[in-house]
Specification:
Number of strands: 5
Helix content: 40-55%
Number of helices: 9
Strand content: 5-15%
Radius of gyration: 18 Å
Order of helices and strands: HHEHEHEHHHHHEE
Bound molecules: zinc ion
Oligomer: single chain
Distance between the termini: 34 Å
Length: 216
């Protein structure tokens, strides 16, 4: 990824204007509905599309998702080349590199929608639950990666005990990431949200049904 303005859609304007946040949500919903219904993918991965995108990109949503191989954002939203700007880490939490990537998508590419997407049976959230319930420790960078999820597990445990802890912690973890992006004291994220040109929403993906359920 070239971090120059030429990479954004500011010069030759090969793209139409960005959709509104709600229009972007409608597009994602339509793509997910087609995926759930097992309809053939309409995603544009053609040569023409590739050539158009060689002049710049204009993704209509930024996805903060989990690295889990079963939760590929382009597949479950039926998105083609150049449509989604994606940050993926196990457990869908972001560090400075992830936050910088999100800010870049908003500042340079004017993405109108950020989606934080958790999923059922998330291994990273399950591991954070094991830290809480079994005092488990994880080696290497895995422990540090999971650490930010622990507060979500603790909140889920306080709210509802140990039954369905992982599934409830998945939702709590998404909610916290959404809140972090909604309140992060960075003008390039705060300002467009204030103006209504950017929305941050959370969702949880169901592995078996393929359905993305939006939170609140
Ligand atoms: Zn996961």
């Amino acid at each position: 990824m070239k971090m120059t303005p030429a990479n954004a859609n500011t010069d030759s304007k090969p793209f139409p204007a960005q959709p509104t946040p709600d229009e972007a949500l409608v597009r994602l919903n339509a793509g997910n509905a087609a995926f759930v219904a097992d309809r053939p993918m309409q995603a544009d991965v053609s040569r023409d599309r590739r050539l158009a995108l060689a002049r710049g990109q204009q993704p209509f949503a930024t996805l903060v998702g989990c690295s889990d191989s079963r939760v590929g954002p382009e597949q479950l939203f039926g998105a083609g080349l150049g449509e989604l700007f994606i940050v993926r880490t196990a457990g869908n939490n972001v560090d400075a590199a992830g936050m910088g990537s999100i800010e870049y998508s908003v500042m340079a590419l004017h993405v109108p929608l950020i989606v934080v997407l958790g999923h059922e049976q998330c291994g990273a959230v399950a591991a954070a639950s094991e830290i809480v319930t079994q005092d488990k420790r994880f080696p290497g960078s895995i422990g540090r990666m999971i650490e930010p999820i622990v507060p979500a597990v603790l909140a889920a445990e306080r709210a509802g005990g140990k039954s369905d802890l992982v599934d409830r912690a998945v939702k709590e973890n998404v909610r916290r990431m959404v809140e972090r992006l909604q309140t992060f004291s960075e003008p390039m994220l705060i300002e467009p949200q204030r103006k209504g040109t950017l929305k941050v929403v959370g969702a949880v993906y169901s592995l078996a049904t393929g359905e993305v359920r939006w939170l609140d």
